[in-house]
Amino acid sequence: MSLLIDTAELAGLAAEGVLYGAFLCLFFVCGYDLVDRRKRLNAPLNFPMVLAAVLLITLATARFIVDCTNIFVAFIHHDPREARLAYLQDVTQPLFTTKHCIYITTLLVGDSFVNYRCWIVWGKNLWVVLPSIILSFVSTASGSYTMWAYSFLPHQTIRSEADWLTVLFSLSLVANALATSLLAYRIWSVDRETHSALQVSEDPQSRLSPIVRIILESGLINAAYLFVFVMTLEFGSQALEIMSEMAVPLTGIIFSIVILRVGHQRHSDSFYSAHQPLTSLAWARTKRTELSVAPDASHPSTVTVVDESNGGPLDAVCCEESTVPTVEDDDIARSEANAI
């Protein structure tokens, strides 16, 4: 027996309720984390992230209210089941248009959030993010046309504008994947150049590695969801309504996780834009420069750092004698205690 739309709507509302509750908790955690980051690092509040979080929770709340209202109207005011099915499949209903307009807006907010972060990380270079920005707005335009066609063109069904819906989700998928890939590459390249410049071995548990991983994971989750959405649309299954109702809070959860992970890092996004690729001259000087540590005879606690490429001292640091107990001190103290 094939899945009917009223069953799909009920199942989608149940899943949406669970995801909305999780997103609501994450929203408050993100708010606390952003404020705590401001106090901890003495950094200004990241208003674009705050705006994105507020917009996403507002859209998710509005979508949940509209979906609940739609279900109540269908099951209370439309009986028998044939009338209920006809109501839920009527694309000219205001509630149908409203809930899908909310989803299209959520896709735009999510894409804009990724594009903004990519723009910051690449030193506010508009040309880097321009393709993904264009794809995002074309995707939104195709979704807006679809909603207009459902409302004003005659003899419309969910399948009648399937091609435009495919364009909507496919372009959003490409835009999000492109911006996420550029963002991950920039952070990875800064990590690699920093290790090379400092001449340290690569640490698989580097501080930047979790950032790259969570960005890629978030992009893949969103891309995988959009891919499943497009496949469901192509097969014409009523499970499309389940996917649609889960989409808005799920998008909020994905980007809330990104905000949380970025908020727990030491550096903001602008840190990566300040680290431009090293020139060949800088690399050559790094290789020619060797640092040696020489004790000062007159001051045993003074360490002089010498740049052998120029033949002169770079810096002199006077250090107090260490008062931190060593392992040998601990062993001696332990032996005395046993003797007593």
Describe the structure.
The chain is mostly helical and 340 residues long. It is built from eleven helices and three strands, in the order ααααααααααβββα. The chain has a three-stranded antiparallel sheet, with no helix packed on it. The protein is globular.
Low-confidence stretches: 277-340
Biggest sheet strand line-up? 1-2-3
Number of strands: 3
First-last Cα distance? 84 Å
Estimated share of beta-strand residues: 5-15%
Strand and helix map with partners:
Layout: H1 5-41, H2 47-77, H3 81-88, H4 94-121, H5 126-152, H6 162-198, H7 209-235, H8 239-263, H9 270-273, H10 280-288, E1 291-295, E2 302-307, E3 312-318, H11 327-339
Antiparallel strand pairs: 1-2, 2-3
Helix pairs in contact: 1-2, 1-8, 2-3, 2-4, 2-8, 4-5, 4-6, 4-8, 5-6, 6-7, 7-8
